[in-house]
Amino acid sequence: MKHKNNWNGILIVEEIIIQRNNKIIYKENNIQNIFHASGQYFFLEILFKNLSNPSMYYIGLDKRNSLTLNNTLNSLEGEPVGKGYARQGVSLSNFSISVGKNGNYKASGPTITFNATTDTWGPVKNIFLTNVSSGIDGYLISSARLLEEITVVPSDSITLKFAFAFSN
């Protein structure tokens, strides 16, 4: 999948790095995404219907073949289970807001890390944002596709640096 310059998203993966034995085996920058209809609904509920903004958001990995506007958490395929994998939570208090290169504001999150600790997991090819730490009882907000499928083995680490913005 070729990454587009124009996009309709919210999650920008500024950098993903996979290391094996302290050597970088995969690196990709500025991965853009799709802002799912359920994510749009979720934010409109927060803005206009007094739905409480969660104190944490979660980043996960899966291997859906197709990222579409109508994907939901039920659409996730191949999200790893166990083996050291867990959706990574990010507290709202860990974000900083700044003006991006194009003059739009963005909220930059901390670097997060996935570790394969006990067994191989994957392949995965998507990064997703949700409001729940596990399961499907929540909202699939946004997803981004990697250029390559990734399989991790014990001691591999996947680090992500990400930001949120409404346009690039």
Describe this structure in words.
The protein is mainly beta and about 170 residues long. Strands 1, 2, 6, 7, 8 and 11 form a 6-stranded antiparallel β-sheet that branches. The chain has a 5-stranded antiparallel β-sheet with strand order 3-10-9-4-5. It has one domain. The protein is built from 1 helix and 11 strands.
What's the short version?
The protein has 168 residues and is mainly beta. The protein contains one helix and eleven strands, in the order βββαββββββββ.
Secondary structure layout:
Layout: E1 11-20, E2 23-31, E3 33-35, H1 37-48, E4 56-62, E5 88-91, E6 96-99, E7 105-108, E8 112-115, E9 121-130, E10 140-152, E11 157-164
Which features does this protein show?
single chain; 168 residues; mainly beta; six-stranded antiparallel β-sheet; five-stranded antiparallel β-sheet; 1 helix; disordered N terminus
State the secondary-structure class. mainly beta
Shape: globular
Rounded to an integer in angstroms, the radius of gyration calculated over CA atoms is: 15 Å
Span of the ends, CA to CA: 19 Å
Helix content: under 10%
**Uncertain ranges:** 1-7
Indicate the mean pLDDT: 87
Domain module tally: 1
Number of E-state strands: 11
Please work out how many helical segments DSSP would assign.
1
Order of helices and strands, N to C? EEEHEEEEEEEE
The largest pleated sheet is described as:
6 strands, antiparallel
